[in-house]
Amino acid sequence: MSATSARLTRLTNIPGSAQLAALAAVLLGNWLVFPGFFNIRMVDGRLFGSVIDVLNRGAPVVLLSLGMTLVIATGGIDLSVGAVMAISGAVAATLINAGTPLVLVVAAALGAGLLCGLWNGILVALLRIQPIVATLILMVAGRGIAQLITAGEIVTFDDRGLIALGTGALLAIPVPILIAAGTFALTTLLVRGTALGLFIEAVGANERASAYAGVSARVVKIAAYVWSGLCAAIAGIIAAADIQGADANNAGLWLELDAILAVVVGGTSLLGGRFSLPLAVAGAIIIQAMNTGILLSGLKPEFNLIVKAVVVMAVLLLQSVRRRD
Amino acid sequence: MQVPERKPLLSIEGLTKTYPGVRALDAVDLHLYAGEVHALLGENGAGKSTLIKVLTGLTGRDSGRFVLDGQEISPANVIQATALGIGTVYQEVNLLGNMSVADNLFLGRQPMRLGFVDKRRMRQQAAQIVAKYGLKIDVAAPLGQLSVAVQQIIAIARAVDLSARVLILDEPTASLDTQEVALLFDVMRQLRERGMAIVFVTHFLDQVYAISDRITVLRNGRRVAERLTRELPRIDLVQMMLGHELSETALHRHKPENEAGETLVRFEKYGKRRYMAPFDLSVRRGEIVGVAGLLGSGRTETAKLVFGIERAETGSGRGLVSIDGKPTHIRSPREAIRRGFGYCPEERKTEGIVGSLSVRENIILALQARRGWLRRMPRRQTDEIAARYIRMLDIRTPDAERAIQFLSGGNQQKALLARWLVTEPRFLILDEPTRGIDVGAHAEIIRLIERLCADGLSLLVISSELDEITAYADRVVILRDRAHVAELSGSDVTTSKIMTTIAA
């Protein structure tokens, strides 16, 4: 009896109801301004349509928000992910033009992201620099590094394999969507299939108590930043492949803010502690769906930012009501 | 008994202050005379900080009045209190370390010339002030470069120069070494000569007897006594602070000497400069060693050294640890846990529980941390462990998934005990295991401690509840002024013996 009633209370209080309601509302809004929003058609063995477009365009922010969720859950923040995207794109474009095989190109770009994450992790966890300052360093310096790699130019490439990572399709589904979904699955496995997720939440909620219980807070934090760097590198490869070039100045510009927004909309507190990867992904999709919806509606792009702000506020208010209950 | 013809400079009469659920001050009186050092004493939660906060206008009061020099006053904030002549210097110097000594002395009231700060005059005046205190320092130097003691004196100088007649020193000596304390005492004596009334908060009894003229003791928000220092023997003072009579109350549960097993852990010359004097400590299998001492005597410091949170100094025969006779080292909590140690801290909320995680996650945290992140315990296993310990320790929670921060203090404490018990420890350190816990849970935790010990676990229990310690401890280590000063065992483990040793 008490078990059933407990289950009932849990059902009515599902975490994520605010995000799902917001997502539904945004999609409904898109459908109202653009009745063809849910239409999907097949062209040349690839799915096309506004919904597919939302997912495809949203893939980079989804990727960033996966790593960002872990970093924020430890009580930190990673401002450098946009710059890391630029670095990884620059590495990929330069190497592919030098005739390096695609596998090595991807490995090198991912390796660059991993090193960036390690740098951030060391600054935060070992040198105890405040995360917002520590990652600001790479946010600024990262674009400089990317420019050094590309020698200050936009490096274009025409390697079909690399381009396919941004624009190709597999089983009719655009590759960026598949990559984002795969990374989501891998990240979930990493944190929920091991005890890393528990340690991240414990360190984020009370670092000292966790350390006294034997959790190695340093290792946990470094792991989170490394994963964030890796996710940013994947997003950087997709972004470069999409425009068939590496633009050190503009690749991933301001996307760190969208990623942070996605995580917060997904209900993870900036103070650290409990986190949810699926809801962060939902947050990223909400943001992209709004971008697309405003374009489709013919409203001036200037409205984009204001509408975004209103929706974000609505989600946060809904969450705070739930938390108070 | 007291000097009747003198009128107090400041009297506090019937001061009462309640916070939700707590009566922090209950009709407290205090009489402060010009030209005296008045020690304000009491254990944690006695009401010392609340008294100072109310007096300096940091917080309001429910009832009671302050009379300063015949005038009733009621400072509404720190600025008003300062203007009335009540200056306060806190343990953590609240001056600006990056600015010069002169800047700090004259902050907010710099001598001006043509609309600009007259730096030259400010430095001259500052130099005169510090000279009065016997300090030979460059007043243009940044304050942060000076020792804490000198910073304290600068803070005092500033307060005095702001025309203070009443000076409150809130634990000024907590982080000073012996020489620095002597320097500070010189300054205090000098101010006393000049007719200043000084309130001195400290935990160090030696310092109380070295400098103070009068003592007020608070306990649980009430004034226990106001006496002249020379008329109050140490033992009486300790009794007043701890709230015990010398008559024996609790019966000691004697264990035959031979019942305890082999030595499990031994610490030799274990200490850390400016933290805790080196001590020797050994605990046998199935033995409960109690740790007793006043607040600030080094109780928690002992626990943190033993558990590796603070690193003991090693080298040349110091800082040695051996477990089962084999030399080893403990440089971090992780190492301590690997050797079979566990630690329930006094600061349960900030150092013990991970508040937003569930009871289940809090219970398995230490075991999972020891297994490492790769060997995650399956959900079903953690469910079973949590359910078993919730039942065994009678942790009252709606279910195991409840965030632990919503549990009562006693149940949080039991969950923390469970966290260590699942790691099957050999040696548990319990720091104030019954603090802030209601009476019912209190008794349960005591019974639990005795049961654990009967199962062969070794325990180091820190407690300010002497009745408790004498009830279960086989031996008691006595601390004073951050050093282990004595060890009582067998029939010597009585509250009166503990108190006389603390006060000795």
From TrEMBL, chain A:
Compartments (UniProt record): Cell membrane
Keyword Magnesium belongs to the record: no
Cell membrane as UniProt keyword: yes
Keywords from the named record: Cell membrane, Membrane, Transmembrane, Transmembrane helix
Its membrane topology: Multi-pass membrane protein
One Pfam assignment: BPD_transp_2
Extent of the signal sequence: none
Listed transmembrane segments: 20-40, 61-90, 102-125, 162-191, 222-241, 253-272, 279-299, 305-321
UniProt superkingdom: Bacteria
Major location (coarse): membrane
Entry GO MF terms: transmembrane transporter activity
GO CC term (a single one): plasma membrane
The protein, known as: ABC transporter permease
UniProtKB/TrEMBL annotation, chain B:
Localisation: Cell membrane
The ABC transporter domain, residue ranges: 10-245, 259-502
Membrane topology classification: Peripheral membrane protein
Transmembrane segments: none
Keyword match ATP-binding: yes
Primary location class: membrane
Name of the protein in its database record: Sugar ABC transporter ATP-binding protein
Organism field: Lichenicoccus roseus
